[in-house]
Write a structure and sequence with these properties.
The chain has about 1300 residues and is an alpha+beta fold. Helices cover about 40% and strands about 10% of the residues. The protein is globular and about 100 Å long.
Length: about 1300
């Protein structure tokens, strides 16, 4: 930031100095006005030198900053004028500062354009934290969350102590919440909460988001405690209080775990009433209160509450559906019909409304219309019981149509034709069913007024014409025909009811079901929408509420101010308003310096509901909650369904660009942002990474910029041909649509979309991450982001390896070099910042493989005797980089391993009560992954976690086997089978279309205790040294403490269908897996160079690659030219996974497996481990292997003869030695003393309790925890966030600097030795 401001001062002085010359030039041109050459005074230049993006949201230009605003406007004019006159010879810093000024003025298109120009001109842009922060804020404003996340992560990576780190954590928390990455969201909110600096949300608002995250994660008791604790806060803002009570009340109504029904409903009503006292205008709270009243039978109170909800937020499909249920319960079918039609008009995919409407038609003996409604319900992605509906449809089709039934059927989409009738919100309140007089609830027989949706004679004539020409109609005409038939059907039903009322008593009918025919059982079809309460619409102190982010892609319901989007049904999508669309071209009308090259901007397109605060400040929030029927609703209006509250999350548009408090709803796994919608138009914008080079089609000698045309179709941001990506390539106007792009679209060579954060390869900065990549001829140095079409032509820079970094001959020189580095010392994450940019995803290897090479044979070794197992080439073959995975067949027999020691029977006898982690999964074919309904393939691998014991799981394993035998015998009795035995996987495959059964997978069983598992662990010592759990050549044996599952043995107990989802091993270490039997396992493996492609696929499917649960779609991998090794592991086979191999496994039969990790003593293994260590740091993920701690232990214990490995370890020692010295000097300057705390034997490495980065040597622990001898460790950055002067912290020193210097000096390159037997 200092360098940025210094550059600004220089630039400002240049402007002042150039003023006279410009004035002379202007005087020589009579046609040029003098004011075209503005000048900045020295005082103004000094003031601007202190301005950058970090002031965004804190500089109130519209209130008390009028003078600053005027200065910024003048500075923008000066800079634009200078750029226009510079004829292409412009200092990149001018563009950066122009971006800052435009951002502060909230001229987002200008800011984005300027930042992109800076990005394209400045090769080491990543050093400029203020630039990355400003770029992230612009992306955040446009709801391009994918790019905003990357920009913000890089800021924290290069400068953890950035002045606006709290704001970054806050916005990362909001964006991850939108993306349903709840663990990451919770982590960033907690990081924001402990930071004592200011940000756009108050502490109470952040606490609310944290409590809401607990609720979304179904940690209801924790959420309840968090909500109730928040209510005890003094001076709690009214909006926060109202939202907290709303969430707490609705959670008690829907969650059975929180008590018995009577007490829960009483408490829920009490909370909702208090919420309405705090915020009487919350339509959502009124709706929830109505649901609660309806569930306990207080119909009149429920109706009043629903009517209040309509008054506050009229256009809510859920409210109209609930009103229809109440009318139907009161035997008022016409009023119910109108309400249901209102619901499906607002949301065509409202499954509950369609089901209720179908039930209504059945009650009126119109089975054909009912069938249409049920079919529409099954088409909804939110329908959770398609099987029951399908059975009902089949039954109705078999029945004869009723004599009095209407010949018309309700079409799939119901919406009126007249503009003035386009939504219930535009109708007169007097014609609304919700506004009927209260007498209608007390057995009133007066016929309702003629509704205004009756077809006129002209429309009836049009309907007949359309019917006559049905075969030749266009899609638009077909839709019109459906709409007219819908209204005609409703009109006939109404007329029939009117005739019945006029001729005598209404014929008997069930309140909620058909008359005379079997009905669906109560609660048989769970209500599609699970209400997701909205959170606070809290105007922030520094400006009006910003626009809402990320509407879901696809057609929207009528724009009536409702934020409920189609498809956001049961635990479904986050309901968002229309977002700000990214401009097709990143130029603003007031951007004269870009007019030389670019066309006029198409501007920002805001949807009709892009602001959730209405013109009068009223909130238009509504949650996609289900309509209520309680115990009365035959179609299953369950009032006990857990809620997934959803609230709008706002991006910045105000002067403060503050984010709103609304709790962004969680989309459950497998639904939501990944869905595709027809009719969505993705927009592109100019990428800052689209570097122009001489000779490129879009090269401009002055600006060097390039322009990306708008696309009318979705663009797959995982472009198979892309080898480099860069910021600015949001392919849609919302994060949801950007993430849900499903198919690649042809991109012009000069208009390739790039994404932020990708370069030639991952180049971490720590511990040798800068070393040469031996996997690819591409060197690690090319750090500048190039457009894909220029990659092959771009000249490579010299290789940046650890050997290019000066490694000081002595530790004394190291310490001398880092003297006087400043009061705050050097960043704990980046010591050699100028050498090590943030790591980035690697591109796929080039050229792409031919299709016939995408299923390569798996390298296999067959062992006949013990000598084969200990033959040195076996070790070399397994660790060869060209072999991602190796299967060693017959290992158990060759070594005479007693695998029976790991059999279920022996395990039960040894330790029956040992803990087992259980994952409940769906049993599916190994090469497919379907959602729970079996309707759609997906990447997300769904499952729930629980715990049991070995004895209990053994019983389950045995009963599962016996049940399978019974099923096989039954099938044999029903059908003559062939001689060939049907395998379990074939059985699974054949039953795919049937509902998937659940299986339980016993995983992560720790067998490290030598006292409990002595015989088992001794047996594994028979393995060759390279595959043993502990050996001198195993890096993990030098960590000095146990890392469960890595340098200890883990056991897995399986039944057919048990899945180990896709992943790479922790820190890219190798792995050993032995199948105990008796059944087989099927393996899938992808080489390490393709992990970037796999990560892109996970991101596309809205899954966290590092922490999420995913099962790849083989068709996607095939299309992306990703090779997949596929093989069967039989009992006694050992699978060796090489460094970084991506893999996933499914059990074919009943079997047990044992597994652990191994770290070969090689430069390749160390390099990839450090790269993943740095990537984890960028992604805020804990590294299971403490690489700094391991590197120092290696320097103490190992003689290294490999030059590359030696240089990488030495480089890591250098960095950490400098870091320790810098921190100590900063502590001395602050008057803080360290306390000697010698490291204990087998003491684990330490991690920050807040951000989970490794903390080496100097531990910042809270005074309270130190006094209790239960030290809670912090890193320096987190400690200073909590207290800038480190008050309340004790700094423990575990290693003397003299000792570290001695280790550093004595670590030297050993002479090369001949390879020996393993």
């Amino acid at each position: 930031m200092k360098s940025c401001r210094a550059s600004l001062a220089v630039a400002a002085r240049r402007l002042s100095a150039a003023g006279d010359e410009e004035k002379k030039m202007a005087a020589g041109k009579a046609s040029e006005p003098e004011e075209d050459s503005p000048r900045l005074s020295a005082q103004e230049s000094d003031a601007l030198a202190r301005v950058d993006s970090s002031l965004f949201g804190y500089q109130r230009l519209h209130e008390d900053g009028a003078s600053m605003k005027a200065l910024l406007v003048k500075a923008v004019r000066c800079y634009e004028s200078l750029i226009l006159r510079a004829e292409g010879k412009v200092d990149p810093e001018l563009f950066c500062q122009l971006g800052h000024f435009s951002l502060l003025l909230e001229e987002y298109p200008k800011a984005l354009s300027a930042y992109q120009r800076y990005y394209s001109l400045q090769s080491d842009y990543w050093k400029n934290a203020a630039f990355l922060y400003g770029l992230g804020m612009v992306y955040f404003h446009y709801n391009a969350f994918q790019w905003a996340i990357k920009a913000f992560q890089e800021v924290l990576y290069i400068d953890p102590g950035f002045s606006r780190a709290k704001e970054i954590h806050l916005r990362l928390g909001l964006m991850f919440k939108v993306n349903t990455d709840y663990e990451s969201s919770l982590k960033h909110f907690q990081l924001a909460l402990i930071d004592s600096s200011h940000c756009t949300l108050s502490k109470a608002e952040i606490q609310f988001h944290i409590a809401h995250l607990y609720e979304i994660q179904k940690r209801y008791r924790t959420a309840k405690e968090a909500y109730e604790s928040l209510l005890l806060t003094e001076a709690l803002p009214v909006q926060v209080k109202a939202a907290t009570l709303q969430q707490l009340g609705w959670m008690h109504h829907t969650v059975e775990l929180l008590g018995d029904k009577a007490n829960k409903d009483s408490y829920a009503i009490q909370c909702l009433q208090k919420s309405l006292e705090a915020d009487p205008n919350s339509g959502q709270s009124w709706y929830f209160l109505g649901r609660c009243y309806s569930s306990i039978g207080k119909v009149q109170d429920a109706f009043i509450s629903y009517r209040q909800s309509i008054d506050k937020s009229e256009a809510s499909a859920d409210t109209w559906c609930s009103i229809g249920v109440l009318y139907q319960q009161q035997n008022q079918p016409m009023d119910a019909l109108q309400a249901y039609i209102c619901a499906v008009q607002l949301d065509h995919s409202h499954a509950a409304a369609w089901m209720d409407l179908g039930t209504l038609y059945e009650s009126c003996n119109q089975p054909q219309d009912a069938i249409k409604c049920y079919v529409n319900a099954t088409r909804s992605k939110a329908c959770s019981n398609t099987a029951a509906l399908a059975a009902r449809i089949k039954y109705l089709q078999a029945c004869k149509p009723g004599a009095s039934g209407s010949a018309q059927s309700l079409p799939a989409h119901v919406s009126p034709l007249d503009d003035d009738q386009s939504s219930p919100a535009k109708r007169k309140r007097t014609s609304s069913p919700a506004k009927s007089s209260s007498e209608s609830w007390t057995n009133s027989t007066a016929p309702p007024a003629t509704p205004n949706w009756y077809l006129s004679p002209q429309k009836l004539q049009l309907l007949e014409q359309l019917r006559a020409n049905r075969a030749s109609l266009k899609p638009v005409q077909m839709q019109m025909l459906d709409q007219l038939e819908a209204q005609l059907s409703a009109m006939h039903l109404h007329q029939q009811q009117m005739r019945q009322n006029s001729s005598g008593p209404v014929r008997p009918s069930l309140p909620n079901g058909p008359s005379g025919v079997p009905s669906l059982p109560a609660h048989a079809v769970p209500r599609g929408p699970v209400p997701r309460p909205s959170c606070i619409a809290h105007p922030l102190a520094n400006g009006p509420l910003p626009p809402s982010p990320g509407s879901r892609s696809g057609p929207q319901p009528p724009a009536v101010g409702n934020n409920h989007t189609p498809g956001s049904r049961a635990n479904g999508d986050v309901p968002y308003l229309h977002p700000n669309a990214l401009p097709h071209r990143c130029r603003s009308p007031g951007d004269p310096w870009r007019s030389q090259n670019l066309n006029a901007t198409q501007g920002l397109q805001k949807g009709p509901g892009s602001h959730w605060a209405g013109p009068n400040g009223d909130r238009t929030l509504s949650s996609s909650g289900s309509a209520d029927g309680g115990s009365h609703n035959q179609v299953g209006h369950s009032s006990t369904t857990p809620s997934e509250p959803a609230v709008n999350h706002q991006s910045s548009s105000s002067s403060s660009s503050s984010s709103s408090l609304t709790a962004t709803s969680g989309v459950p796994h497998g639904t939501g942002p990944t869905k595709e919608s027809n009719g969505s138009t993705a927009t592109q914008h100019h990428s800052p990474g689209s570097r122009s080079r001489p000779g490129s089609p879009a090269h401009d000698p002055k600006l060097g910029g390039k322009e990306i045309p708008a696309a009318n179709s979705r663009l797959n941001h995982v472009h198979p041909g892309s080898t480099l990506t860069a910021p600015g390539s949001s392919t849609a106007s919302s994060p949801a649509s950007a993430l849900s792009a499903s198919s690649p679209s042809p991109v012009e060579p000069s208009a390739s979309l790039n994404k932020p954060g990708s370069t030639v390869t991952v180049n971490g900065s720590g511990g040798g991450a800068c070393s040469e990549d031996s996997r690819s001829p591409v060197k690690l140095e090319p750090l500048k982001l190039e457009p894909p079409e220029l990659c092959a032509k771009a000249p490579h820079r010299p290789t940046l390896s650890s050997s290019t970094v000066s490694i000081y001959p002595t530790s004394a020189d190291v310490l001398k070099a880092c003297r006087n580095l400043g009061k705050n010392g050097v960043s704990s994450s980046r010591i050699l910042l100028n050498k090590c940019p943030p790591p980035r995803l690697p591109p796929p290897p080039a050229p792409p493989l031919d299709k016939d090479k995408l299923n390569p044979p798996t390298p296999s070794i067959y062992l006949e005797n013990k000598r084969d197992a200990f033959f040195p080439p076996l070790h070399q073959f397994c660790t060869n980089q060209s072999n991602p995975v190796t299967v060693i067949r017959g290992l158990a027999g060759a070594l005479k391993l007693d695998l029976g020691l790991f059999s279920t029977k022996t395990l039960v006898e040894a330790n029956p009560e040992h803990l087992v982690e259980v994952r409940t999964q769906l049993c599916q074919p190994a090469d497919e992954n379907w959602d729970s309904s079996g309707q759609k393939k997906q990447w997300r691998c769904e499952g729930t976690r629980s715990y049991t014991t070995i004895a209990k799981y053994a019983q389950y394993q045995a009963s599962s086997f016996q049940e399978s035998l019974r099923e096989e015998n039954e099938k044999k009795g029903q059908k003559e089978l062939s001689d060939s035995e049907i395998t379990s996987s074939e059985t699974v495959s054949r039953s795919r279309k049937a509902p998937f059964k659940q299986v339980k997978f016993g995983t992560n069983i720790d067998v490290s205790d030598e006292k409990k598992w002595k015989l088992q662990l001794q047996e594994l010592s028979k393995l060759p040294a390279f595959a043993r759990v502990v050996s001198a050549g195993n890096l993990l044996s030098h960590v000095g403490h146990s890392i469960l599952g890595m340098n200890t043995v883990q056991l897995f107990m399986k039944v057919p269908g048990s899945r180990t989802p896709g992943h790479q091993e922790h820190n890219n270490f190798c792995a050993v897996n032995i199948n105990i039997g008796p059944g087989d396992c099927e393996w899938f493996a992808v080489p390490e160079p393709y992990w970037g492609v796999m990560s892109e696929f996970c991101e596309k499917n809205n899954i966290n690659f590092l922490k999420g649960s995913w099962w790849p779609n083989l068709e996607d991998l095939y299309e992306a030219n990703v090779p997949v090794y596929r093989f069967i592991q039989r009992p006694g086979d050992l699978v060796w996974l090489n460094t970084g191999t991506v893999h996933w496994v499914q059990a074919i039969g009943w079997c047990n497996n044992i597994s652990w990790n191994v770290g070969p003593l090689s430069a390749y293994q160390y390099k990839l481990a450090v790269e993943r260590y740095e990537w984890n740091k960028l992604q805020s993920v804990k590294s299971m292997v403490p690489m700094v701690h391991l590197s120092w232990n290696m320097a103490r214990n190992i003689k290294v003869s490999d030059l590359k490995l030696f240089e990488m370890i030495k480089f890591c020692l250098l960095r950490t030695l400098k870091q320790c010295q810098a921190i100590k000097e900063a502590l001395v300057a602050a008057g803080k003393e360290t306390v000697w705390h010698r490291r204990g034997r087998d003491e684990p490495a330490h991690y920050c309790s807040i951000c989970e980065v490794e903390v080496f040597n100097l531990l910042f622990v809270t005074s309270d925890s130190y006094a209790r001898r239960s030290s809670v460790v912090h890193c320096q950055a987190c400690a200073r966030k909590g207290s800038g002067e480190l008050e309340g912290f004790v700094v423990l020193e575990q290693h003397r600097m003299d000792d570290l210097m001695q280790v550093y000096d004595q670590f030297s390159l050993a002479p090369a030795l001949h390879s020996s037997s393993s």
